[in-house]
Amino acid sequence: MSSRDAQLLAREQGVDLVEIAANANPPVVKIIDWGKYQYQKMKEEAKNRKKAREKQSELKTMKVGLKISDNDLNIKLRKIKQFLADGDRVRIIIVFRGREMAHKELGQAMVDRITTLLSTDTEIVVEGKPQFAGRNLSINIRRK
Description:
The protein is α+β, with helices and mostly antiparallel strands. The longest helix has 22 residues, at 34-55. The chain has four helices and six strands.
């Protein structure tokens, strides 16, 4: 169709004539409502941004005491593995109560125990060193 005919047809329909491929021979144009096209494009970009935000990993927190029993620890480890499988990062907090603060090496031993138990099933990466914050020893882990 000639460019003049396309312009007349677009005017009759009350829409716009938009150039799609300028380098083609002959150039390709499309008869569309430009405002509606821009609105749909904006909505699609917003939807894509929302999906991208949902895919970002969350930071989950799991608190563990020094005197935790083996069965309770296994339950917490199972939950941590689920978080890691979902792609989330996990912050493990070792909570010190009362006179346990005098034995900080037990907290480090608990961190080592947890990381070795987790690394048997899944490959994990420890982000940074264990950090003390008040009465808590925390460590961040994620899946490789």
